[in-house]
Amino acid sequence: MSITKNYFGTLPDGTQVDIFTLTNSSKVSVDIINFGGIIVSITVPDRDGNMADVTLGYRNLDKYIENPGYLGALIGRHANRIEGAAFELNGKVYELAKNDGKNHLHGGITGFHNVVWKAEVIGEKLVLTHTSPDGEENYPGKVDVKVEYSLTGENELVIDYNAVSDKDTVVNLTNHAYFNLGGHASGDILKHQIYINADSFTPVNDECIPTGEIRSVKGTVMDFTALRDFAEGFDSSDEQIKNGGGYDHNWVLNTKGNAGEVAAELYHPESGRLMQVFTTKPGVQFYSGNFLDNLNGKENAVYGKRNGLCLETQYFPNAMKHKHFPSPVLKAGEKYHHVTIYKFTTK
Q1: Which pathway does this chain act in (predicted)?
Q2: Closest-CA residue to 198 (of 270, 253, 275)
Q3: Which residues are identified as catalytic?
């Protein structure tokens, strides 16, 4: 596996942003920039060996500064939504930015998606580090974060998340890559199939905020316990589909932190491309790109509604309001460590 570094762009304040290309012996490659830890592209073969870039993105830094859909971004301190843009920790209420209606989304205005990370190539890993100061976005504690990206000979993109804080705080890191296994410019995702290793999910209200219920998927359009088409779900009268504008929900994984067990699969029958997801996280957010709004992407592609989907491994959204959910609280001096793997094969 090799890693090369090239110039990508310059921010308005003069800071240079670089792009790192990870390539393995099968010519599979991943492009990552140190602005926002963003995955710009993932190029993998189909069943006939034809290569295609299967993640949505841009080749222009200015687009990533805007990036309304968080394309490819590293998300923190807290991925997903926090109800009312506030949480209570150790008897104190922390008020956060209201950047999703009256709620808090993906770490706020100056979330991890919007900073330049220090980047080093160490062995066969791209190592990104960032220190989030105490009080940033009104989160408590100075948090030192390290995220390692590596690409294996088995076509696995491994993301290794690490953090430590000097005060009790909340940390919930993920990546917001949008996948389209037909190729990033191939149109909608409606011919994909999905499997999620979860017997239950967390229902949401009409603001996409989990209500606290953990509900069985059995007999509903949320049941992906066998690989199946999901396009028909968009036409469902199910209240959850209406609340999310499609799929925008967290599934309660059966894997129980076992990164050796498949958490989810995405399959594109036409190309034969199969992506398997492995993670130590307790949940995964399947987001079907419901709010993509004709973004001008790479190679003159236009990304409209449902032209890509996300499988964001995570702690459950709104977990600070529902104490029976796995807790995103990181105690002072303790280590946050999670791993997520996206493995690409064909069948």
Answers
A1: Carbohydrate metabolism; hexose metabolism
A2: 253
A3: 176, 312
**In CATH, what number is assigned to the domain containing residue 295?**
2.70.98.10
Number of compact structural domains in the chain: 1
Per-residue confidence at 240, pLDDT binned at 50, 70, 90?
A: very high
pLDDT, one tens digit per residue, over 135-158 is 999 999 999 999 999 999 999 999
The answer to whether the Cα torsion of 117, 78, 292, 226 is positive or negative is positive
Instruction: Taking residues 166-193, report their average pLDDT.
Output: 98
Q: How long a stretch of residues is the chain?
A: 347
Of 265, 283, 242, nearest in space to 81 by CA: 283
List, as own/partner pairs, every contact residues 233-239 make where C-beta atoms lie below 8 angstroms and the sequence separation is at least 24, other chains included.
234/190, 234/288, 234/306
pLDDT for 8: 98
| Domain coverage including residue 40 | 2-346
pLDDT digits (tens, 9 = 90+) for 8-19: 999 999 999 999
Give the number of other Cβ atoms within 10 Å of residue 302's Cβ: 12
Burial (Cβ within 10 Å: 0-12, 13-18, ≥19) of residue 152 = middle
Stretch 67-96: mean pLDDT, rounded?
A: 98
Residue whose pair of structure tokens reads 């980047």 in the numeric block? 119
Annotated binding-site members for beta-D-galactose: 80-81, 176-178, 248
Question: Which is nearest to 127 in space by CA: 116, 135, 119?
Answer: 119
**Residue at token pair 């499988």:** 311
240-265 mean pLDDT: 97
Give CA–CA dist 289/208, Å, rounded.
Answer: 14
Binding site, by residue number, is 80-81, 176-178, 248
Instruction: Tell me what pLDDT residue 147 has.
Output: 98
